[in-house]
Amino acid sequence: MTTATEARHEVVSREEWLKARLAHLAAEKELTRRRDELSRQRRELPWERVEKNYVFEGPNGPQTLADLFAGRHQLIVYHFMLGPGWEEGCKCCSFLADHFDATRIHLAHRDVTLAVVSRAPLPRIQAFQKRMGWRFPWVSAFGSDFNRDYGVHFTKEELAGEVEYNYGKTRFGSEEAPGLSVFYKDEAGEIFHTYSGYARGLEALVGTYQFLDFAPKGRDEDGLAFTMSWVRHHDKYGDDYALDAAATYEKPREMGGCCKQEERAE
């Protein structure tokens, strides 16, 4: 079973259909205006200066946050859930990341660089990236405070209670969380944090959801215990795909042994 519901709906004449469609069009236009206004307000939020000198491990050696801009003024960082000891990346983050490569050329021509950051050591990142066939820049924050400072990493001790995520207290089941952080670098080289978003605030990155929202059954997630339980790594779908509506989020398995600093690329 690959779907949660069956599509059944009222069938009407062309005239009745057009009347309903035009009424809905007015609501769509209002939402577009409201979205444009919300985006304008987001751009007018105050900035905070980045004081720390964050250093990441990249394919060619250490890279600073400034290096991630790749010569541009704007940087969007996706915090990908791939912990130091995980066997593979989070399937939900992978779902989002499947949309990244195609847009990079367009972002570059609007003075924006997209980069991905995870806490796993670089060799594990590179192995998973090769498996998925992705090409976007992906660096390791192993040993860095970056993901913690931007609200997407928690200690095992903190997870025993509520953690601070998405600007509020909540229970969370993993040391890693998804998020997006945006930065601006001025002509003097100073870097400013302009925005961060989490949880459903990341949905705008998912082109698949935009397509599904046009379809008769929509996202078809209402009857699922975990809304994204239908999602798989793109190399794990197959003819034997089966949806378990009662499945909850399952954190990727840890690899045997603990993560060692020497696993970082030299």
Shape verdict: globular
Low-pLDDT segments, ≥5 res: 257-266
What's the overall average pLDDT, rounded?
93
* CATH fold description of the domain at 43-205 and 252-263: Glutaredoxin
N-end to C-end Cα span: 47 Å
Q: List SSEs in N-to-C order.
A: HEEEHEHHEHEHEEEEH
CATH architecture of the domain at 43-205 and 252-263, please?
3-Layer(aba) Sandwich
- Share in β-strands: 15-25%
CATH superfamily of the domain at 43-205 and 252-263: Glutaredoxin
Secondary-structure blueprint:
Layout: H1 14-43, E1 48-49, E2 55-58, E3 61-64, H2 65-68, E4 74-79, H3 91-97, H4 101-108, E5 112-118, H5 122-132, E6 138-140, H6 146-149, E7 163-165, E8 168-170, E9 179-185, E10 191-198, H7 207-214
Parallel strand pairs: 4-5, 5-6
Antiparallel strand pairs: 1-10, 2-3, 4-9, 7-8, 9-10
Description:
This protein has 266 residues and is an alpha+beta fold. The protein has a domain at 43-205 and 252-263: Glutaredoxin, CATH 3.40.30. The protein has helices at residues 14-43, 65-68, 91-97, 101-108, 122-132, 146-149, 207-214; strands spanning 48-49, 55-58, 61-64, 74-79, 112-118, 138-140, 163-165, 168-170, 179-185, 191-198. It has a six-stranded mixed beta sheet with strand order 1-10-9-4-5-6. Strands 2-3 form a two-stranded antiparallel ribbon. The chain is globular. The protein starts with 13 loop residues before the first helix and ends in a 52-residue tail after the last helix.
